[in-house]
């Protein structure tokens, strides 16, 4: 997601990702709206859920390496998709 968001991959993010609607102090400005799906085994719904839960502090980093380093201090475990069960 970092690479897609920062145009480090040859992928048009607008084709797959829609910006999130709301931003609060606890959110970051790089949130995406999860796609509607009937399965939780698709890459984007799972990844967007994790991405949207990241604290804003990890997004102050200007490189992929420092972003990865910031992720080391975060619990990336997420709850299952309850709305799909």
Average pLDDT metric: 77
Total individual domains: 1
Structural class from helices and strands? Answer: mainly alpha
- Cα-to-Cα separation, first versus last residue: 25 Å
Instruction: Supply the number of helical segments.
Output: 4
| Share of residues in strands | under 5%
Choose one word for the global shape. globular
Main sheet makeup: 2 strands, antiparallel
* Helical coverage, percent range: 25-40%
Poorly predicted residue ranges: 81-85
The overall strand count is 2
Overview of the structural elements:
The protein has 85 residues and is mainly alpha-helical. It has one domain (2-84). The protein has helices spanning 2-5, 13-16, 43-53, 64-71; strands at residues 18-19, 32-33. It is globular. Mean pLDDT is 77; it is low at 81-85.
Which descriptors apply to this entry?
single chain, 85 residues, 2 strands, globular, disordered C terminus
Topology:
Blueprint: H1 2-5, H2 13-16, E1 18-19, E2 32-33, H3 43-53, H4 64-71
Antiparallel strand pairs: 1-2
What can be said about this structure in brief?
32% of the residues lie in helices and 5% in strands. The protein is mainly alpha-helical. It has one domain (2-84).
């Amino acid at each position: 997601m970092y690479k897609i968001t920062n145009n480090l991959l040859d992928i048009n993010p607008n084709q797959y990702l829609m910006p999130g609607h709301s931003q609060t102090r606890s959110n970051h400005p790089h949130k995406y709206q999860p796609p509607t799906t009937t399965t939780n085994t698709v890459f984007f719904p799972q990844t967007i859920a994790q991405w949207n839960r990241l604290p804003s502090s990890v997004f102050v980093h200007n490189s992929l390496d420092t972003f990865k380093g910031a992720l080391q201090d975060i619990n990336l475990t997420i709850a299952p998709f309850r709305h799909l069960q």
